[in-house]
Amino acid sequence: MEENRVYYKELACYEKELKKQIKIKCQDGYFDLMELPTNIMREEMRSYIFERGKTVSYSTICHDKTYYKQVCSFLCQKNLQNVNSFLDIPQEKWIQLLKGWMLQTGKPLTYEKPNVFGTKNVITAYLIQYFKQFLIFLQPEDEQDEITKDIWRLDTLGIEVKKNPIYNVVTLNFSKIVQPDIREEVKRAIFMNLHYEAVGTVQRELSAIRKFSGYLKKEHPEINSCIDIDRVILEGFLIHQNTENSSHKSNSDNVIKLRNVLEGIGKLYGYSNLDSLFLNTDVPPEIQPEFKNYSDAEIKRLNAKITELDEQIARCLVIHQMLGTRISDTLTLECDCLYMENEQNMIRIHQVKTKTFEKPISAELSKLIQMALDYTRSKYGETKYIFVDEENSSRPMQYTTIVHKIRGMILKENLLDDAGNLFKFSTHLFRHYYGVKLTEMHLDDWTIARLLGHKRLGSVQHYRKMSNQKMADETRDIRNMMTEILYKTLDGWGEEYEQIRQND
């Protein structure tokens, strides 16, 4: 019967797929609700499928069918008496029953998945993940105030949260702070910090306090509140941290972030013991990191393979190199970023880390950016950003998308650096390469800073302000040289893109 079926084409993700103008598979596919034992269960599952269709891709829904049928088989074989709804049994009990059935039927509870870093992750079986997500969906709405929960949804806190749009941070998790009183103290401090700190900074603060909490559980189980922390306990933790296999930079950052949180707690709760807990010497002196950079040969090898990737990914990374920007600034380029001034191509860059700045670009680069913009408009319509997330075009392309594509390519192609090792990919190395080339041209620090979008100069005392026109005139030869350098590295760039080499 039709009413007992949920067809794929009824779901929101089907409409999204149609807009992409991609050939749709399994158009007549459906979920047969009659495979579930009771009417209540059928309606519960129907609601979940429709809701899930709003948030996942069409291909994910197609994959869901496999796990749905397995859930139906599990219920049929278990033949549970007096169970009319999935809410009749606690969530934990359901998962136990499912795992037992999986073991009986020879289905693995976990599997190993290779990652782009060359190692393997142990992943919970998709069937368990699917069933758990469904059970969570059915749970009544939690009416607790968000900040009293152990997992916060950032969009429900009622404050404007400073996020980098290329990272999709949705929640903050406090559950691994094992001491209940410390957990509540940290929550208040973190909520305060969210008013003026970026989410990325807050995440590192949480990471530092979680490590400290784990140390207290092991070495000082009697500590329940931050009011009980003294200098002796802190010194023990600092010694413990310095003996771990972690980088100097990481240890320094952990100390700074831990101090931020504990001193914040001290101010909020009036814990005087936290006011002078840290000494300036607790933070190891900064060690100048090794400056890493790609060689010309490495750039050429890497770009030869990059240009064989998905065309928009390839455009994005070539544009990134030619601009010399931070990756966050490249991925958040807005559709109105290009303009002309005195017959000079200009670009407006809204920097995530600092401020908006403008700089001249070559006609060739302007054409390439326009091609990327045309591609996005043809596929997604009008958007804010040039490079967008495939699943949600209101967001910019996510940094993890770039990293996974490139690191996966490096592994697949066995791409080696000049030392004979697999490439260590970082988008910031492109920026280093750009900066090195500028210094090799013997430019002054101010010009380099303008081209790189730096807010200030560490060693320059007096700033020389330059108009856009003066900057365009003074940097034209340099920009042309940079364009030529990068073009020489683009072996493998197909005929479709040869037009970007042409002048107007």
Write up what this structure looks like.
The chain is mainly α and 504 residues long. Strand 3 and strand 4 form a beta hairpin. It is built from 17 helices and 9 strands. The chain folds into 3 domains: 137 residues, no CATH class; 137 residues, no CATH class; 206 residues, Orthogonal Bundle (hpI Integrase, Chain A). The strands form 4 sheets. The protein has a 3-stranded antiparallel sheet. Strands 1-2 form a two-stranded antiparallel sheet. It has a two-stranded antiparallel ribbon with strand order 3-4. The chain is globular.
Helix content range of the residues, please?
Answer: 40-55%
The counted number of beta strands is 9
What would you give as the CATH superfamily of the largest domain? Intergrase catalytic core
Count of individual helical segments: 17
Percentage of residues in strands = 5-15%
Class by SSE composition = mainly alpha
Mean pLDDT equals 79
CATH class of the largest domain: Mainly Alpha
Q: What gross morphology would you assign? A: globular
> Alpha-carbon distance between the termini?
63 Å
Stretches with pLDDT under 50, minimum 5 residues:
435-454, 456-471, 494-504
CATH topology of the largest domain, what is it called? hpI Integrase, Chain A
| Number of structural units classed as domains | 3
Radius of gyration: 27 Å
- Order of SSEs: EHEHHHEEHEEHHHHHHHEEEHHHHH
Question: Main attributes?
Answer:
single chain; 504 residues; mainly alpha; 3-stranded antiparallel beta sheet; two-stranded antiparallel sheet; 17 helices; globular
